[in-house]
Queue: 3 jobs
Job 1
Amino acid sequence: MNLHEYQAKEFLKAYGVPVPPGIVAATDSEAADAAATLGGSSWVVKAQVHAGGRGRAGGVKLVKSSTAAGEAAGAMLGTRLVTAQTGAQGKEVKRVYIEQACDVAREIYLAAMIDRSLGRVSFLASSEGGENIEETAQANPDNIHKLVVDPNVGLVPTEVQAMAEDLGLSGAPATATAKAIEAVYKAFTESDASLIEINPLAVTDTGEVLALDVKMVIDDNAVFRHPEFEKLWDEAEVSADEIEARRHELNYVHMDGNIGVMVSGAGLALGVLDLLKAKGGDAANFMDVRPVATRDQIAAGIRMLLADTKVKALLVVAMGGGVLRCDTIAEGIAIACKETTRHIPAIVRFAGTAKELGELALQNQAVGVTFAHDLADAAEKAVAAVGGRG
């Protein structure tokens, strides 16, 4: 779950991370009013989309009057911002964030993330932050500093202070940066975040430390523990299918192919997508069903795939386990197929618990599917069904 910059800043501010005053706006007049309300002599107008590289794409503008803030917002709102992270389609700008500008003396990069090789929260920091952080890190890898946190000990103040000093800071800015790191760690652990990235963490001409841009990602699997985040879920940037999948607790990602795919297990799903590609086909989606999925959730997923007019064939691969049985998946398939008037080729590969019962259930209910002998056979049959080489 991605938070917008303004949402992340509001959240981190409550933990003590220093951020400049700002107001979100959805119209040009709201943007002009926001600048007037904030006061000052200059403001930054920022497009609010889930993507980095906004500045290079024209999504960040410095203005010197409230009128100019409204004009800059009007030029952004309703357009599609294309960055290196959005793809050619870009993302529609539906909100902008108006923020007081400040005089920046230094830009620092700071991020908290999960080091999956260690299973621990780690901080990465660089004395050279800003828009070109990727290129800077590649050119000067020695400038990247890492701090791994032992969950049994927590942040060690001396290590935090040492990281701040490694960034070339001293005095009040070093102390403020250390406090920001501590605040980010507390926010990270209490929110079940998977990433909090501040780029840049700016040191102003007066020695003040401010988080000028923030990217924050919450682990989707933990959102149930945080009802306060439900209102922050930006459905405007999520496709209707993804919203529907989330309601039925299905992991779904839209893709560009014509073979609708449902698989029990994310790793297996990735393997199936690779197999389809190797056999000359392309998946229309990634859909992973949970080990505790119900037949109604399976049916909802199949209905989604059948409703996609680009999908010319279905491929269902299930490894029945201790909880999710193949016959449960078969019942879901049968429910969805009987409710729809659209019939397309369906290939099924069952293995594991209740494999035979699942196949028998589909046969007895006269659901027209083709059974595959193994994964390669399943991929070949699916590709052949859409006119590929198979």
Note: The longest helix spans residues 171-191.
Job 2
Amino acid sequence: MTSAPRDDSSDRPLLALLMRLAGIAGFALMAALIKMASDTGIHLAELLFWRQLVSLPILLGWALVTGGLMQLSTTRPMAHGVRAAYGVVGMVLNFGGVILLPLAEATTLSFTAPIFAVLLSIVLLKETVGIWRWSAVAAGFAGILVIAQPGGGNVPLFGAAVALGGAFMIALIAIQIRDLSRTETPLVIVFWFSVGSVIVTAPFMLFVHEPLTSHQWWLVIGIGLAGTWGQVLVTMALRLGKVSSVIVMDYSSIVWATLYGWLFFATLPAFTTWIGAPLVVLSGLIISWREHHLAKRAFVDQRQATGT
């Protein structure tokens, strides 16, 4: 999470894959703890507040040991404010999806983020989308229909809509972070997002906070630690390996979600999820592969044009 640019000569693909896998496990554990904390009566707004507040001292400590607090300075406060606003909305929807749905179904619907990213790239970035990515979008939405089964499925439609809204926000945030990353390091982006989120959610604590039991304290601390663990590891993975390689590990979260759902909540995915989930995952993999292929072709064309 430091600011040095990534050098291809320092790639360590196996370590990058393991880090990404461990980071995704951290996010999956955070989701399970969120569901458990909500079941004890902790309000969603309070979960958002503690999720980010717990991460702040960790990020500050990271900054101190990797170059000092000055590296947290920024010249783009407005952009970070927009990032925080998007992020809080995204957390509300993603946490809400986890609370309203079984873990496996909520996780699977979050995999639709690449689909929304394709659609947003058309609207916001004016990109041209070919048959491969349109086919992936169609397959992904077919998977959603199989899982949600509008009008008669086992998945609550409101919960599915909330989870899909969360996936849309993930895609929107990814585009905004792409812009921030031109000038800001991952540490700066994560730190100011945490600061902004705490500022936004703190006023709600006046209305929703109730004294927590020791069990609830352990849950909210665990949410913050697991979430920060996930953020740190998935970011470090991108410093050691290419995005197109490590992103595949994200789909391992369905395994963790199924395992945690069985261990903590005695639930297993519905039959329709077993059918629809592969379609959604396949959609994301096709989009990731196509993005990698297009980026590689653009790089080759650029080198040929410059004669290097």
Note: Confidence is low (pLDDT under 50) at residues 1-10.
Job 3
Amino acid sequence: MEKRQKPLYRRSGFLAFLATSFLGAFNDNFFKLIVTCFAISRLNKSELNTYVPLTGAMFVLPYLLCSSYAGYLADRFAKRRLLIWTKWLELLVMLFGLWLFHCNAVYTLLAALFLMGAQSAFYSPAKYGYIPETMEECDLPNGNGLTQLCTFIAIIVGSWAGGAISRIHASNWTLGAFYCVLAAVFGIGTSYFTDKTPIGSAKAHFQLNPLQTHIATLRAIWKNRLLLLSMLCNSFFWYIAALFQNNLSLLVKQDLGGSEQVLGALLGAVGLGIGLGCLVSGLLSRRRIEYGLILPGGIFTAFSAILMGTLGRHLPAAFLFSATLGFFAGIYQLPLSTSVQKHSPPSKRGSCLALGNAMDCIGMLLAYFTQWILLNLFRLTAGGVFVALGAITLLVLLYIAFKAPAFPRKSKELLFKTN
């Protein structure tokens, strides 16, 4: 008789993986925020109008530039080995950042942000490729749900800690940056306790042109319509997340008249909602990929965005609909990310996840462009942009239902089973 595996929460290797992922996401957001707060303390208003948008761009851009190389490494080498390598790289970047804080090199810190984004880009395919290689298929939904919950809690804690440390060590920024070095050291330690993964494929082909690599991967999976649709729908999740997050700051300023603390609390509500939504989605999946959750999760996400746009000028409503949008977006996203992991060819899983990262970045860039069009050409308010986001989401869901008739059928089956 086959030996039954322990529950995920009792597997030391998986717990070490969660700790490693938590520390990485924590450090990303902690470092980005103290860099921004450091710049606010050093630059004037006109300089900040250029600097602050650059902080986001410098962190996202490496995902486009480096994702194909990251995919090659994830295919060529064992995922665990790559996890460890990238954590050592994180330590080097944090030491570089610490030195820049010591030198008061405000603009050069943008280079450190770029390197931090590159480190995260190389870490991501190994992170999401590690999960299907260390657990059975029936454990994938719960494994992904716990990973997403852990990641988004890390984002919340990292953002809060970055703001708190920036206030506490406003007279000694070097000491504040030292916490990033400590987090990287602990991350290296936990990475060595993760489970071993299969060796990589010696047949993995390296190409210098990153676009050529993505095109080759796209051609290889083109006939796998479920995989391709899952990747596209997952990228739309990041479109929603980017547009909502970017527009939230305008809503806080224009309609709520709130401070950075209010904005941070609302972002925390979104992040916690996504994490809990992913966890609940994993539980509702009953140890399989539940495609029936995609359309209901997306529909409630759309209505939450519309309600945010119409009622979000009141702070209690803004908190409620930020949390519900995150929650239902998490329910929508988890089956998609799990589907990408399952249906990616094992020999090209790293390349497929890297292509997905590049598509997610394109989705976020499209979100920023959409916001610019809605604000400047259509002259919408921040609330109007949220309503437009809800309408766009409903149109996309209608297209998904048309392209994948099995999704609405699965949703009906899930509803009747629930009842």
Note: The two ends are 36 Å apart (CA to CA).
